[in-house]
Design brief:
Distance between the termini of chain A: 42 Å
Shape of chain A: globular
Shape of chain B: globular
Number of helices of chain B: 20
Number of helices of chain A: 8
Strand order of the largest sheet of chain A: 7-8-9-10-11-18-19
Radius of gyration of chain B: 27 Å
Largest interface: A-B, 39 and 36 residues
Strand content of chain B: 15-25%
Number of strands of chain A: 19
Structural class of chain A: alpha/beta
Order of helices and strands of chain A: EEEEEHEEEEEEHEHEHEEHEHEHEHE
Oligomer: heterodimer
Radius of gyration of chain A: 20 Å
Amino acid sequence: MIKPETLLCPSPAGLYCPPGDFYVDPVRPVARAVITHGHSDHARSGHGAVLATAETLAIMEARYGAGFAGQTQVLPYGQPIQHKDVEIVLQPAGHILGSAQAVVRWKDCKIVVSGDYKRRRDPTCPAFVPVPCDVFVSEATFGLPVFRHPDDREEIAKLLRSVAQFPGRTHLVGAYALGKAQRIICLLREAGYGDTIYIHGALQRLNDLYESFGVELGPLAPATTERKKDFEGAIVVAPPSAVADRWARRFPDPVAAFASGWMRVRARARQRGVELPLVISDHADWDELTTTIKEVKPGELWITHGEEDALLRWAQLEDVKARALSLVGYDDEEEV
Amino acid sequence: MRAFAHLLDRLSFTPSRNAKLVLVRDYLREAPDPERGWALAALTGALSFSAAKPAFIRKAMEERCDPELFRLSYDYVGDLAETVALIWPARHGANREPDFSEVIEALRIASRGQVQSLLEGWLDALNANERWALLKLVTGGLRVGVSARLAKQAAADMGGVDVSEVEEVWHTQSPPYEDLFAWLEKRSEKPSRDAPGRFRPVMLAQAVDEEADFAKLDPADYAAEWKWDGIRVQAVSERGIKRLYTRTADDISHTFPDVLDGMTFEGVIDGELLVMRDGRVAPFGDLQQRLNRKTTDAKLMANYPASIRAYDLLLDGTDDLRQMPFRQRRARLENFVAKARSPRIDLSALQPFDNWEELRALRARPPAGDPQSAEGLMLKRWDSIYEAGRPKGPWFKWKRDPFLIDAVLMYAQRGHGKRSSFYSDYTFGVWREDEEGKRTLTPVGKAYFGFTDEELRQIDKFVRDNTVERFGPVRSVRADKDFGLVMEIAFEGLQRSTRHKSGVAMRFPRINRLRWDKPAREADELRTLEKMLERA
């Protein structure tokens, strides 16, 4: 087999493919980019040409405006295209709407760049498809064995129980504007919550976009009513930064909730003054990371970002050849 | 185990007392007997298991997890029990998930050797939250911000009765409190309170409103005595049973065996627990050395000898005096204390006075001796019966004026719950000269109440507009000789402290007034505080 680094190698702008002359999720403007998903640290504006799923392109346009790239090309899940000598396929990553793994093949070498991913069910996007490969490029946001996310239905039940217990208070759920917020709303609907969910203005456009792709969110309304009393017993979804901000003062005695994988660690929740931590993440937890690696059986594991030390140690114990790419520029969007 | 773990988890993140009450009340309503009784016992500190030690948990963990992975995880999480709870590999089907009562009942009878294998089996079968709750339970101290008093209040709320009713029968009941719940759910009569050694709900005083109250009150109707700076206790010695209770019915007998030995009487005294040396009251800080401990030792008792200053008598032999007027109870008390001849009990003297002005002057300049360290005065109507709760009128407390200083706001921290969007916890400082003779601010205390909602909004804006640096939830605020927010701080007392850089620690500091008008350079000096040490 060829050396995998000749197909894909880390560079300051991100993962670069020399035979195809393109980057995957570059962190600065480049001529050609394959974008795995719409979170801003992976999908930046100003590239010459962008290849991505229709959903991801729509998200980028919603966030950056129509001219976010010189030209764009839609690539649906599972359809291979040939670029120079390199074959590119996008496969569902299960992270957010439109999120994909980039599968690149050249000569006898296949590399899967998983982007950000998770393995559990998400009503807003298709499930992750494991692709056996020579090199698996993985994130490790929650790459420590303490991160084992519970069943998200239990977390939603915790929220609904609290709403019933404190009918005079507003439950203010901090959730990342792209992906997490819509997933929380869908999960609430699946749990049978039919009331109007109030949303922060920053979510409006992305909610509309999700609905235009067929993700039904049920009755929503902006959280702007004049009378405090109207929010008693209500659920409000807002970006995490707004929950601890002056914006939150319009609500009666709010319960600060936060939906994030980081809420698994009590000190993290306490630091942020969260009263109701909801451990719901769009990233793979420790078990998802390790079972995925076992499933795709890569010859090599490359780790892009996150808690890589523990995952490297695990790979060593499991006899999987692994290295950390330590790519910079992928901050964790859940920390916002 | 699930419901109890959920309760602990919610409590640990819930700052507001009212919300905690709702959580505990709802749990007690929904959980079955005997589980809820064991939970109530755990919350009120009535359960303890000595057989499980953190070292064992660590060892058991090492057999299940690569030490390097454990080290990385522990570094990240920072708390051993929590790390273990999160990382413990679940063994599905290994065991049936135990219910909470089963866990408690097994722990109560297990030997040290058995505890370890029991624990391992349970940890295998529980989820992360439940493991966390279990580890907190067995390693002692739930530390979820729930006092015994709060738990009893929640039980009272559950049954729609006053908390004093729960307190009155509390010491006749024992875990898992099935009779108590049967009564609270109106399935049976109130448990008999006629148990020797039980707690009697205490009578509390209202703060006097100097302008409104004195105009209406006749000084001849009231007795005055000094308000001692210790803790309120109820000393019970009844048919061979001796108990020392706090005013919230916590049993602290085990911490004060010296006082218990000195309770050479048959009856119930209401009084102040104080550290006394050579017949003189020692500062409150000395008493603190003896409080909040599970046990005590001879050295501690010798260095901080405690005793009771009696001010009321509820039971004399078998006579319940609570329906008698204070004048008669007082006469009985004086005889009672004299007859007991205990070196651990003395009488709180009455302070004679003719009119309110005279009393006001005494309060401002207390006579030599113990009154100098008193917190103020107590006024009790001569004809008042001993009535549980805080009735308006019969008893008043008239606290000494607080100490006041002007300090400069240095740091502000985000609050919790309702105040999570506000910078509401303030660290303030006063001026001192450093070695080079330069004037700098040194922090002297922290306060988070005393201001109105409107003032909170103003300070919050000031903090946001004048932030110099941010460290997580804390902001440091511009404070120098030319600029800064001066706050008038009120506090009840001052002690030397080696833990604080300034060398002093305040009691009950709060914001008395905002001095937007006062230039920062004119705030007080550390020297001023040091001088106050003598007075406090």
